Amino acid sequence: MVGATTDGEHHEQSDALDRAGLRHVVAVLSIVQIVSWGVLYYTFAALQSSITADTGWSSVAVTGAFSLSQVVAGGVGIWVGRHIDDVGPRAVMTAASLVAIPGVTTMALAPNLAVFYIGWVLTGVAMAGTLYPPAFAALTHWGGARRVRALTTLTLVAGLSSTVFAPLASALDDWLGWRQAYFVLLASLILITIPLHWWGLNRPWRGAHPTTHDRTVAAVDRKQDAAATARSSPFRLLTLANALAALAVFGVIINLVPMLVEQGMSRNLAALALGLGGLGQVIGRLGYARFAAGTTVTSRGVIVLAAVAITTASLALAPDSAELLIVLGMLLGLARGLYTLVQATAITDRWGPTSYGTLNGILTAPALASSAVAPFAGAALAELLGSYAAAFLVLAGLAGVATLLMLGATPRIGTTSGLNAASPTTTTGR
Question: Taking a C-beta distance cutoff of 8 angstroms, is the pair 63, 380 a contact?
């Protein structure tokens, strides 16, 4: 019901941290996001060509293993979201960091493709519990009225992950080889993320309160409201738009280095260009608050997805100029940085914070599946069409379709189905 304050919202407010507590959690999550994204995701983008050259496995087979990890992350992520709603992020994020150890180790030692794929399956489980969705759920719950600023800060800092880890992974590859490079980076993940998840996220969570009959009934009501929201047309359109956008965005990210090499860049310069795209993300997030204040929830989604489509097409059509390609990569990073925050606030801007973990898990699962298919699809399209530039044009078209779908992805004001649907405070820019 519009304007209603649910039991879930009372808990959200009672568990919201004070400024000092929230700053502490944001700092913890920012550090672990930089390292987790860097080791589990962006390192592969920088090393995939070396893996292919060293092993003799095809680029399609290698990216297929990475894609499988994203499928696994999407499926496990639904459970992760529900679990965080119930008990909080501390245990699940710590456990996920532990799972990364056998995952990366198996992948880095793999003597054949089968073992390589097994390693990436385990790494996918680790991704589900360590990357943005669980961190967003934590800050949405603990941030209270300050959650948007907390989310912006997190993504602003974490956006530097590719800037740090893509060139670092490339340098370690030159020095030690891709297998040893992974082991060095895994050591940083073990030493940093596991203790920070366990001790840094030890904060009160509503699921830790004693269960009473009233709270049990309220929990059932929240689950029913979440199910109704997930079945609504705006939610389905939003989910489809996110899935197509993820296919375009991550198809470009993972295939950007080989695309730039195809254009005549050296591998190290292409890796640097990928890292500078991360700097573009940071710039975009710095301006998100002002951008959000001047747009509605619908218009900002449309604007950002249109920017993704245009910059992706521009990369495909640009002349062979290293400087121009790097600038376009940074502009794409800027759009990508804005879109991360558009996606992070998509649930609360439309339906409020209640059951955020559950709904965000459902929303992001197809997007994670798309991001899983994206590296494989990008490489396969390049092979089929004869160039990465042609593949990027197809990906730009998918982003254009997502832009059109986003137009219908906002609940009508006054609807009573779902969670806090379309109240004026959640549909306008902040």
Answer: no
Q: What is the per-residue pLDDT across 106-163, written as a single tens digit (0 to 9) for each?
A: 999 999 999 999 999 999 999 999 998 899 889 988 988 888 788 888 887 887 788 7
Question: SS in 3 state form for the chain?
Answer: CCCCCCHHHHHHHHHCCCHHHHHHHHHHHHHHHHHHHHHHHHHHHHHHHHHHHHHCCCHHHHHHHHHHHHHHHHHHHHHHHHHHHHHCCHHHHHHHHHHHHHHHHHHHHCCCHHHHHHHHHHHHHHHHHHCHHHHHHHHHHHHHHHHHHHHHHHHHHHCCHHHHHHHHHHHHHHHHCHHHHHHHHHHHHHHHHHHHHHHHCCCCCHHHCCCCHHHHHHHHHHHHHHHHHHHCHHHHHHHHHHHHHHHHHHHHHHHHHHHHHHCCCCHHHHHHHHHHHHHHHHHHHHCHHHHHHCCCHHHHHHHHHHHHHHHHHHHHHCCCCHHHHHHHHHHHHHHHHHHHHHHHCHHHHHHCCCCHHHHHHHHHHHHHHHHHHHHHHHHHHHHHHCCHHHHHHHHHHHHHHHHHHHCCCCCCCCCCCCCCCCCHHHHCCC
- The CATH code belonging to domain 7-427 is 1.20.1250.20
Residues 129 and 248: beta-carbon distance below 8 Å: no
